[in-house]
Amino acid sequence: MRFISVYCLRNGMTLGRDLYGKNGELLLGNGQVLQESYIERILALGYHGVYICDNLSGDIEIQETVNQELRMKAVTTVRDTFIITRAQGNVSDAMENTKAIVRRMIEEILSHSNAMINMVDMKVFDDYTFFHSVNVTVLSLVMGVSLGFPESKLIRLGLGALLHDIGKVFIDKKILDKPGPLDDEEMEEMNKHAALGYEFLRDHSELPVTSYVAVLQHHERYDGTGYPYGLKGEEISEFARIIAVADVYDALNSDRPYRRAILASNAMEYIMGGSGTHFDPLCVETFVRKVAAFPLGTVVRLSNGMSAIVVRNYADCCIRPSVRVLSGEWQGRIISLRDDHTLRNVTISEVLDV
């Protein structure tokens, strides 16, 4: 199985995982052979890519940290909570639903706690904020598990992560949906969302204080250059420091109307480069051990000119996976860029969109 861009989909390809519509309904099932009408529907929904099974990747198994059905239920829960918040309705039931979803996500993550995460962009444009909120929650909880948090602490972290952008319901939609960079005035308005979300949750919910403080502080930076208060280091709550890493990584790894997603490996390099400035070094260290820079099934070109497909990742060396060579005299051979010392000068130079 591997993840490919929707622009590479062709008639006759076989879907590798269930694909859901915007409202959580099953759109196409695992094993479905794609037809032109199906591909057009996938494009219309705004999906960046889908999983397929083919001859290149038939022996590659990609474990889901949180299954797609639960992800879609989480997306629906976040959407409903945002809608009720925007309408200034009673959010008590929505918050209980949010807690229930977070508990289910924790159960799944704990059952796969030793696996590295293969995050890809399975969002649709119209529901970006909701899919993003769920991805940030998965990444934050994975980091929390790795840091040894007990379940009660994971629940508080998950609530803060799932609702970290709830303040955006109070921001002008023209600013949120602008197909280009924000000007200074618009950026000043956008930056209010963290405080607005915090104030709403503080005044209208019974969430734990640590959860809504994380909402307030998730745009603070470790070196004190963030907002809204310019806090630095451990002045920033532990949850906010974790969510900050997950938030930036998923945003970089997402297609937006005004820019394409950057590669997972490039997003990982950005996170690593921000250690000690934008991000808490411990959070970065934890993150790079749990999230794959080159997700399983990624087709790459090596610096020696060979093309290959990623078949295994390593927590202690996220940028040097094992790959199966697809071309040349080594075709079919599996090599470990981490362990084979004769290949120390060989790197991954390019991700191929095939």
UniProtKB/TrEMBL annotation:
The keyword Hydrolase applies. Keywords: Hydrolase. Coiled coil: none annotated. Residues 107-303 form the HD-GYP domain. One of its GO terms (molecular function) is hydrolase activity. CDD domains: HDc. It holds the Pfam family HD_5. SMART domains: HDc (SM00471). This is Metal dependent phosphohydrolase. It comes from Ethanoligenens harbinense (strain DSM 18485 / JCM 12961 / CGMCC 1.5033 / YUAN-3).
